[in-house]
Amino acid sequence: MSKYKIISEEIENMPWEDKPLNCIEPMWRSVHNPIVKRNPIKGIARIFNSAVVTWRDGTFIGVFRAETVYTLPHLRVGRSNDGIQWHFEDKQLEMVDESGKSWNPYYAYDPRVVKIDDEYFVIWCTEAHGPAIGLAKTKDFKTFVRLENPFIPFNRNGVMFPRKINNNYQMLSRASDNGHTPFGDIFLSQSPDLVYWGKHRHVMQSGGEGWWQGLKIGGGPAPIETSEGWLMFYHGVCNTCNGYVYSMGAAILDKDEPSKVKYRCRNYVLTPEKEYEERGFVSNVVFPCATIHDPKTGRIAIYYGAADSYVALAYTTIDDIVDYIKENHESVGRDGEIGK
Ligand code: BMA
């Protein structure tokens, strides 16, 4: 029995590997990493920073960030029986507007996928006179209906919560610039209808005692509902003389007012240490985008992009991660406020 509870549907066959006996960290990597390697299919150089969800008959499906051999990022659907070995569609994901007319972005990257009721929402960084948040919905991963962009540019790292809170959809995002943004906090915006977004709140600022999240932070997978509040994995960036280093952080947000940070972990929970994280198209990047989790066992699998070159997988349990966050809690700036 876990000490803390995950509140979501049960997943019988989620990808899982037990914590190695000698592991003293709160998170451990899959022995199969990287689970998606370079040149995975014809014409595609790299697949990374991707989002997976559970699908019918115990299988898994995902929206992946793929980059062509001429280095243009787009989205592509992948399917898997075990969440580890993936098969990708031959063509990139295509979208239509609400009248059924083709409406595809010039580029698309860093997708997140969230199931709300019986629909799946894809949120990604889209071209819109600069990077902005794109939003589309699907029920079958065949027809993707693109909605209007929730926010004006420049913005990245949009991700929605898996249910409405206080009668509103909730979206985390990170205001950016047109380049490799040397700043950034996580914000929350709310909408009753996925058309009009407002009630903007500041959630978390970059910084804290350590330097790993000193430059900027950005949302990662859809937050997980738990007995302690919303468990949020995110990325934090450190600026070094050799460029940015991306690590994974974890925090717990208030259940009813998710712009309030209840606990925030002073330590990163995963940082580039393995060769596939330290070396690649962009070295030193761990970039979480999705989780699969099971309330019955308390297991959590985290999908992350490694070095802008690979998809990798790490694991934790609700007890391991929540205890670690609480034991290493730090309060940063005005994070604990509602952020109006
Ligand atoms: C960010 C995003 C991510 C990428 C990271 C490191 O700005 O573009 O897609 O993983 O930079 O290059």
Tell me about this structure:
The protein is mainly β. The chain contains 2 helices and 22 strands. It has helices spanning 275-278, 318-327; strands spanning 28-29, 44-54, 60-68, 73-80, 87-88, 95-96, 108-116, 119-127, 131-138, 144-147, 155-160, 169-175, 186-191, 198-204, 216-219, 224-226, 229-240, 243-253, 261-264, 286-294, 299-306, 310-317. The strands form 5 sheets. A 5-stranded mixed sheet has the order 6-10-9-8-7, with no helix packed on it. Strands 15, 16, 17, 18 and 19 form a 5-stranded antiparallel sheet that branches. Strands 1-22-21-20 form a 4-stranded antiparallel sheet. The longest helix is centred in the C-terminal third of the chain and has 10 residues, at 318-327. The radius of gyration is 18 Å and the shape is globular. It starts with 27 loop residues before the first strand and ends in a 13-residue tail after the last helix. The model has no long low-confidence stretch (mean pLDDT 98). Residues 49, 109-110, 180, 246, 282, 285, 287, 305, 308 line the site of beta-D-mannopyranose.
Pattern of helices and strands: EEEEEEEEEEEEEEEEEEEHEEEH
Which ions, cofactors or small ligands are bound in this entry? beta-D-mannopyranose
> Could you tell me the number of beta strands?
22
Shape: globular
**Whole-number mean pLDDT:** 98
Strand-residue proportion: 35-45%
Give the biggest sheet.
5 strands, mixed
Structural class: mainly beta
Alpha-carbon Rg, integer: 18 Å
Strand order, largest beta sheet: 6-10-9-8-7
N-end to C-end Cα span: 38 Å
Helix content: under 10%
Low-confidence stretches: none
How many helical stretches? 2
